[in-house]
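Bench notes, bay 3.
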Amino acid sequence: MSAAISSGRPNGRIPAILLSFIFAVIVLGPVAWALATSFKTEVEAVAVPPTLWPSTATLENYLKVFRDQSFLRDFWNSVAYSVGAVALALLVGIPAGYAAARFSFKGKRTLMLTILATSMVPGVALLVPTFYLLDSIGLLNSGIVVTIILSARIIPQTVWFIANFVEAVPVEIEDSAFMDGANRFQIIWHLILPLIRPGIAAVATIGIVTTWNDYITVAVFAPEVAKRTLQVALVNQVFDAVGISWSYMMAFVVIASMPVILMFGLVQKWFISGLTAGAVKG
């Protein structure tokens, strides 16, 4: 009987394997197509019928991207906005999350639900009033303002994540530190932060991906060309009066995606352990 069961296990996995393969094709298919197109000439990129792989691979599209004088400026803006927004979100979210996890006060649950509810408000609904407000006080095209707006969108989830990670740390550890003479700041800096480091890495990764891929915020609140990001530059190419160069655009997409992909690869271990850390309460 056990032999029959064990022999049936591989057959039972076939549907799951096929389903996983289908999902992999759906997800990775467009990525592979974009990567292949980036190595094609423009003539081959628009050829009918299309070819999957370039007949003669070329790096010319990538060289064109790097030769573009505005590319490095757009790249720097993307990095500055993303890193600045995540740093500000962590600066606010870590103490707020810690307070939510360790302190009890009247209206705490209502406050936390309110913070969570703010993240559910569509950003598009706030574009027009925020635009007119910034325009009236002369703060359009301000990199600092864009960074603050991007940060405000990820602060609610940061507070909730950090609160869950802190709750997973046994409170007895802090009690022992208090008995040894440590103050609250020392406990947070030297004890809590090292213990929830994987969680912080997970929150930072989600924040970087969210802000890096943001288009509408920068396009609306920083319409000046010198303030745009890679995402805004990419979308602008679609509306270029000269026309779209698909091979060049795909090379641009690949380059614009690489920083996030490389970052995720570097912190993958921490990211996975961070997402599961808050699920198990010490």
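Next record in the batch:
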Amino acid sequence: MKLKKLVLTGAAGRLGSHLREPLSKMCDELLSTDIVDEIGTLYPGESYVKADLASFEQIEPLMAGADMVVHLGAIVDERPFEEMLGPNFVGSYNIWEAGYRHGVRRVVYASSIHAVGMYPKTECIGTDVPHRPDTFYGLAKCFTEDLGRMYWEKRQMESVHLRILSAAQVTNSRALGSWLSYDDLIQLVTRAIDTPVVGFTIVYGVSNNDRAPVDNAKAAFLGYRPKDNAEQFAEEILAAQGPADPMDPGTMCHGGPFASIELGQSLIASMGIIDDRKKT
């Protein structure tokens, strides 16, 4: 299935950098957007527009003629609520409302495990568990999932919410269960786009890890069948780390370190995430 036009928000980020090329091949026109001045060499059929998610006036015209939106744009860290409000809460409303006004059929949204991050890891959770956010960042994911459900039930605008666990290189024991490889990310987004009917759907963004702590059975109709497995890194990772503290929420909860930090406290800079975005 080739679409006429796709819009990609957060195109300058790590995940956006790996999705731009495959998305450009799924449509006649890929409109990429972010808040940076430029994103490097554009792929065939791709254009770039700098726009602020918190501004409806900047976002609304981007939706003209679009079939679907892949919405990755956000502050991807915990911050004070006032900082999150514009890009992560209002920004989601702007995407859905502008998309609705222009007849966008579906939004594919980068949600997060942090929408349910306070569940203990001893529970293998499905896609239908009640929200249990670990941070203001996770709360924004809950808000957007509920927004997507409302726009489906009230306005028949479809959405797929990808609860990504950790789409980064495996550098710690948590990632042995939570890893989402870039190849599996691409497959997941592709299935979210090319599945004929999705309504409102939640699916976990995780690879085929032996230690995956979530259950995608109720989203099986998407046809997402991950291929990569973090177990290949297990021996080295476990040898390098000492015993886990069973009393630490960062160890015991699905949200990892986000479950143990204070609300509003930035965390990403201390997590050692490798910036391996794809260069163009």
